[in-house]
Design a protein that fits this description.
- The protein is an alpha/beta fold.
- The protein is about 40% helix and about 15% strand.
- It is built from 14 helices and 14 strands.
- The protein has a 7-stranded mixed beta sheet with strand order 2-10-9-8-5-3-4, with helices on both faces. It has a 3-stranded antiparallel beta sheet with strand order 11-12-14.
- Helix 4 links the parallel strand 3 and strand 4.
- Helix 2 crosses helix 9, helix 11 crosses helix 12 and helix 12 runs antiparallel to helix 13.
- Pyridoxal-5'-phosphate binds next to helix 3.
- Pyridoxal-5'-phosphate (PLP) binds next to helix 3.
Length: about 425
């Protein structure tokens, strides 16, 4: 590596994502008393506005000073009892890790193994739920966006499978790498627990675990026998009611969150989803039409608008591409995890991002691939992405329903600067 890397590091892992300057500035605050009479202004404004990004008019959102993994644990332990049966599908490292956690917490997980590159198998879910006549399955897990493989699953479809089977299980969704980037509808899909984190679409550093909980799931908390303490929603509900936390909150992160929510409402949620789709299509054009390589996602219906996992040709170790990109070009690409380690590298395309930033990632990935001997044509990825972006509208104007207008309504206000 050069002794000094001048210029910016190009951060294109699928989280943590780039933190906008406005958010960084908002987080540069002196510490203050989190028990002051003023503090609830900040906490209630971010808690209320987070409901809008989940598209949740009912239920409650919780913020933990943790990461997404903490919110996974909070979701499971607050609503289930040891030995409870859970239905889950494994098709990537993150769907795997949630299953692993559920098993370690003492739940009985029925795991449906799915090829990596596909998502939640709706037909199989429906069959299993229909066969569970005694309703022993208490929770159904679905990873909305599997970050390891770049696969997005159909959560509305999971809800339909539950409804078709007339099954009362709680629907748990991992929205860590989809929230604020890919459309997510807590109320409409009747999701019961939606887990997210601060370092992806919310454009903050890692450090907050965020959990949206439906009214139905809130009613399950009192009877859930799993042991919990730090993540107990009952303590949070009590403290949050007055605008406080049961322990010291991550104050600068909350100021950062306030600013990131302001930015999100300025752009508009629906516009953000469109921008992510448009940027992702350009990246996919670079991969398939430009480099003539394959995505790990098996079919277009699984394509993720937040991350693309690119399969390198046989005989090449994808880790070398990542290392050359990092050491030589100051570009951070996502690694292949577990089963796909060495086989794929990932470009994260979520958060505070535009075409030309992505052009840097595409050009850097292309140079690194050529350096390690992958036969791609110089400039082909950039040319294909440019062709796509130049010929498409970033934000196709579509009819916005009244519901969407409601959720697009503005934030409750800006605290701090
Ligand atoms: N779920 C998904 C889909 C993720 O992408 C990640 C992290 O990348 C996690 C869960 C775990 O979140 P965290 O690393 O914030 O604990």
């Amino acid at each position: 590596m050069r002794s000094r890397m001048a210029g910016r590091n190009f951060l294109f892992v699928p989280g943590p994502t780039n933190v906008p300057d406005r958010v960084q500035r908002a987080m540069m605050v002196a510490m203050e008393d989190h028990r002051s009479s003023k503090f609830p202004e900040l906490s209630t404004s971010v808690l209320n506005d987070l409901k809008k990004v989940f598209k949740a008019a009912s239920g409650q959102v919780f913020i933990f000073p943790s990461s997404g993994t903490g919110a996974w644990e909070a979701a499971l332990t607050n609503t289930l009892s040891p030995g409870d049966k859970i239905l889950a599908a494994r098709f990537g490292q993150f769907s795997h890790l949630w299953i692993d956690m559920a098993q370690r917490l003492g739940f009985d997980v029925e795991v449906v193994e799915v090829e990596w590159g596909e998502g939640v198998p709706l037909g199989r879910y429906e069959e299993i739920l229909r066969a569970d006549k005694r309703h022993q399955i208490k929770g159904v897990l679905a990873c909305h966006n599997e970050t390891a493989t770049g696969v997005t699953s159909d959560i509305a479809g999971v809800r339909k499978a539950l409804d078709a089977a007339n099954h009362p299980a709680l629907l748990f969704v991992d929205a860590v790498s989809s929230l604020v980037s890919i459309d997510f509808r807590m109320d409409e899909w009747r999701v019961d627990l939606a887990v997210s984190g601060s370092q992806k679409g919310l454009m903050l550093p890692a450090g907050l675990g965020i959990l949206s909980v439906s009214q139905k799931a809130l009613s399950a908390v009192a009877d859930a026998k799993s042991r919990r303490c730090y993540f107990d929603l009952a303590d949070m509900i009590k403290a949050n009611a007055a605008g406080y936390f049961p322990y010291t909150p991550a104050l600068p992160m909350l100021y950062g969150l306030r600013e990131s929510l302001n930015i999100i409402f300025e752009e508009g949620l629906e516009e953000i989803f469109s921008r992510h789709n448009y940027l992702a299509e350009g990246v996919r054009a670079a991969i398939t039409a430009g480099w003539r390589l394959k995505l790990c996602a098996k079919e277009p219906k699984w394509y993720s608008d937040t991350v693309s996992a690119i399969v390198v040709p046989e005989g090449i170790n994808a880790a070398h591409v990542i290392d050359v990109a990092f050491r030589r070009y100051n570009l951070a690409l996502g690694a292949g995890l577990s089963k796909v380690a060495g086989k794929v590298f990932r470009i994260g395309h979520l958060g505070d991002l535009n075409e030309l930033m992505l052009m840097g990632a595409i050009a850097g990935a292309e140079m690194a691939m050529m350096d390690v001997g992958i036969k791609v044509t110089a400039g082909s990825g950039v040319a294909a992405a440019s062709e796509y972006w130049r010929s498409h509208d970033p934000i196709p104007r579509k009819k916005v329903s009244q519901d969407e207008q409601f959720y697009e309504s503005h934030s409750t206000g800006s605290i701090h600067g």
